[in-house]
TrEMBL record:
Protein name (Swiss-Prot/TrEMBL): UDP-sulfoquinovose synthase
Provenance organism: Microlunatus soli
Transmembrane portions of the chain: none
Superkingdom assignment: Bacteria
InterPro entries: Epimerase_deHydtase, NAD(P)-bd_dom_sf
Pfam family of the protein (one): Epimerase
UniProt record similarity statement: Belongs to the NAD(P)-dependent epimerase/dehydratase family.
Length: 388
């Protein structure tokens, strides 16, 4: 199949491109390099050195003999989106290309507006381009488990059978997201469901949990193929941060009492979920939702797991939670759709933590330890901040 990967220079987009190329698909990537810009803005860098996109693509050609086509540009530029779809003529589009950090979206008004504008309008441009140029294209969109929040009922896969005043309907599952970023994904999901219902597009929304890990079968083939690994308090995700903190001898930063629970998955499973979704497309008019996570852990449990696995001493520090989120909550997620398509999950107990300690150790001199401390809070903005 011809697969276009939007956000193909990112943490997940780049290994996704390699995974599909390795599986024999014709692959193209599109990116505006915004993610590299956030690094400059925040004064941080990926823990593991990464090559520029051109070098990555050349390295893959050398290593595998396979070509990945590259399109440099912005999803906010509708003409560019249409031109790319006309030029590459994909069967499937995998859409990773959004601002993805909750804390970044909560910095201030400017960052909240940027996040929602970038994510919602980029996705809308894509929906219109698919509808006008080829409604057969299967859109595979990265959503997030955080769209649901932590409701006090079971989390279903996107849809909920509701009985109200004696009548029944199948409704989109109600959402209680926890940041302006997570809200942008809710808005995207609604726009995509509308496009499927009204225009007959076909889409799979993958409500993905927090991803951990670095290496995939393909990225391991050459250091130039490595993907990024973030550790800072804005873009670094919790387990990746705990591993780095353990290696550096810094305390593991558990926010609040650590009882907040999330869904997680190994980076290798992300790639497989995407392949399964693309190779088993949604029907025309179908808005299909999968919960893309394999295990649930509380943040406190994760800290304990890292501390147990690390060969040296580890300190766990409970910080005042910079976010507003529930603790001690119910969390029971249905995630059978991808398993039914054939997913065989890598569980956290499969020794991944130990292998990450070694990789992290070899790059630890690149860490700016100041960037480990959380600085963004969910506090209501002060009056001056709103009017500035
Ligand atoms: P990332 O920030 O590393 O990659 C996103 C890429 O999209 C970047 O390379 C960026 O430059 C590009 N991009 C952003 N806006 C763009 C635009 N307007 N036009 C063109 N390119 C643009 O993020 P990631 O961690 O690889 O996540 C990929 C997707 O998966 C995101 O949509 C994210 O919300 C979702 N997701 C990630 C995780 C996780 O733990 N990393 C978990 C759940 C869901
Ligand atoms: N947390 C800590 N200590 C830390 C960092 C985080 O206790 O040092 C806690 C947070 O308070 C939160 C949980 O860990 O309760 C997860 O935080 P995170 O930063 O790892 O993940 P999150 O902000 O939810 O966002 C990440 C990705 C995002 C994706 C989301 C999936 O950045 O793109 O959408 O995971 S989910 O959480 O399922 O919505």
């Amino acid at each position: 199949m011809r697969v276009l990967i939007l956000g193909g220079d990112g943490y997940l987009g780049w290994p996704t491109a390699l995974h599909f190329s390795q599986a024999g698909h014709e692959v193209a990537v599109l990116d505006n390099l915004a993610r590299r810009g956030y690094d400059e803005e925040l004064g941080v860098q990926s823990l593991v050195p990464i090559e520029d996109l051109e070098t990555r693509v050349k390295a893959w050609q050398e290593v595998s003999g396979k070509t990945i086509t590259s399109y440099a540009g912005d999803l906010l530029d509708a003409d560019f989106v249409y031109e790319t779809l006309r030029d590459f003529a994909p069967d499937a589009v995998i859409h990773h290309a959004e601002q993805r950090a909750a804390p970044y979206s909560m910095i201030d008004r400017e960052h909240a507006v940027y996040t929602q504008h970038n994510n919602v309008i980029g996705n809308l441009n894509l929906l219109f381009a698919i509808a006008e140029l080829n409604p057969e294209i299967h859109l595979v969109k990265l959503g997030t488990m955080g769209e649901y929040g932590t409701p006090n009922i079971d989390i279903e896969e996107g849809w909920l059978e509701v009985e109200h005043n004696g009548r029944k309907d199948r409704m989109l599952y109600p959402k209680k997201p926890g940041s302006f970023y997570h809200l942008s994904k809710v808005h995207d999901s609604h726009n995509i469901e509308f496009a499927c219902r009204i225009w007959g597009l076909r889409a799979t929304d993958l409500n993905q949990g927090v991803v951990y890990g670095l290496e995939t079968e393909a990225t391991k083939l050459d250091p130039r193929l490595s993907t990024r690994y973030d550790y800072d308090s804005v873009f670094g995700t919790v387990l990746n941060r705990f591993i780095i903190q353990a290696v550096l001898g810094e305390p593991l930063t558990v926010y609040g009492d650590g009882t907040q629970t999330r869904g997680f998955l190994d980076i290798r499973d992300t790639m497989e979920c995407l392949r399964l979704a693309v190779e088993n497309p949604a029907d025309r008019g179908e808005f299909r939702v999968f919960n893309q996570m394999t295990e649930s852990f509380s943040v406190g449990q994760l800290a304990d797991l890292v501390a147990e696995a690390f060969p040296g001493p580890v300190q766990i520090e409970k910080l005042e939670n910079p976010r507003v989120e529930q603790s001690e909550h119910y969390y029971n997620v249905k995630h059978t759709g991808l398993v039914e398509l054939g997913l065989k999950p890598h569980l956290l107990s499969d020794t991944l933590i130990e292998s990450l300690f070694d990789i992290v150790s070899s790059h630890k001199d690149r860490v700016n330890t100041e960037a480990l401390t959380p600085t963004v809070t969910w506090k209501r903005p002060a009056k001056e901040a709103v009017t500035a």
